[in-house]
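quick one, 80 residues, struct below
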Amino acid sequence: MGIRHLSLDLPFDLPAVDAVAMAGTELRSRAVAGWTQLHLHAVSPTTTAGISTYLFTYWLPNDPREGPAETPSDPEPDLS
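---
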């Protein structure tokens, strides 16, 4: 679980709300399930005229790359 990033090259004059909508569409097309809190984090120029790189952040509560969540174990006994 945690914050993830997505980078897309999009038209430099794209309104933020449209950029976020396109990022959501991209996450769905990549089959990223369970994401929430998608935000536009930064916009940077590129060497291509009229194109900027948009950086998005989103929360992924259950990231399959990290495996199952750990369960708490019993505390170690105090041997002192």
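Residues 73 and 80 are 20 Å apart (CA to CA).
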